[in-house]
Amino acid sequence: MQKTYYDPADLKKFGKISEWNEELGSKFFEYYNSVFKEGALSEREKSLIALAVSHTEQCPYCIDAYTKDGLQRGITKEEMMEALHVGAAIKSGATLVHGVQMMNKVNKLEM
Amino acid sequence: MATKSLHKRNSDLANSNRQLDILSNGIFKNGELPTFKSKLAETNLAPIKAKKIEILQINVGYMCNQVCEHCHVDAGPDRQEIMTRETMQQCLNVIENSGAHTLDLTGGAPEMNPHFRWFVEEASKAGIKDFIVRSNLTIIKANKKYYDLPEFFKKHNVHVVSSMPHWTRGKTDKQRGNGVFDSSIEALKMLNAVGYGMPESPLKLDLVYNPSGAFLPGNQAALEKDFKKALKEDFNIQFHNLFAITNLPISRFLDYLIASENYEDYMYSLVEAFNPSAVANVMCTNTLSVSWDGYLYDCDFNQMLELPVNSKAKHISEFNQDLLEGRNIVISQHCYGCTAGAGSSCQGSVT
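^ Those are the sequences you sent over. The predicted structure of the assembly is below.
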């Protein structure tokens, strides 16, 4: 039996998701592919956003995929790490901004 | 980074049969991945047949001033295979009569062949439409005797195609050796100074991009845009086109893939990216590769794997268009490198 929840080889099988629901699977992949096409944002910019979000979502498949995608596009390590810090900053900011709620609650409850 | 070729190190992988073994066994033997032959059959594209020769690519020797980590030639300062003047003369006879529109000199560093200048002078008289020399750039700065190469190229209207794996120092030096980036930048400035690569200039300067690692090249046009922007802004350097070339899993790149435990994943990437429409335009269909000792191959990669042309004409001295046209191209799993994604050739992507 598989001893880990994640197997890097499973990423290659992502397309098989459609086998159990062809209609929704196809719709998803069509949507997904459209999202990453050059538009108002370049494919390169989208790849960096995807890399940052992959980390905030903590998806190991996505991290593998978009790290490789970035290298293929000539994106540098420095650019990748800066993008990650944007994700990390939003994650930590999102934690800390809730502190206002904590403070409000404390102020409300304390005499 | 290694400073000696696989041959000099007596590496297993210096042996072409060993490389072919690796490419035929493992994941291709156990059926995990389809062989290139069965993939072609699946898509009704087998066999690949040679058309009329349009590009004559001559490898004038494996000696090089660099020892790049990804080199499919296993070139380096320690390689002694150098084309003789006699073989060059045989090539000249073919250049004058073959009708090929492109002559493409490669190596090693072709400039290190002692007869290089004589050969260029003679070949340039043949009226070839596009006369390419693949220069690694650093050779121009390697020794005083090469400083005038930009002027020499200009005099003979040579089309210069140069390797440049990235617009940043770190990525370039990691693949090609310390100091290569700075030296390449200097050489590009020298080429620009005599008119190479300038907008509207007839002196063509193109760059070749190879990924510096176990991944495929991205979109050629997008990479060209990024290269142009960075080289112009950072160094005021200009060039014409960027050729994005996939690293084929042979020789030193194969050695790297195995040592870094990337071989299987890389082969998966190549197979998954198989593009039937790239097959129609692979370079072996219109190119003939000549080795330093005059033997004929379907491409420079087959030359390194010692897979000769499937024809009665085996040597440049036996060149015969009728015998070579229509021959079946000799294939193995390395061929997936030329059919992945947008396809790859010495002229960049093919679709």
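Chain B has a mean pLDDT of 95. The longest strand of chain B covers residues 130-135.

Shout if you want it in another format.
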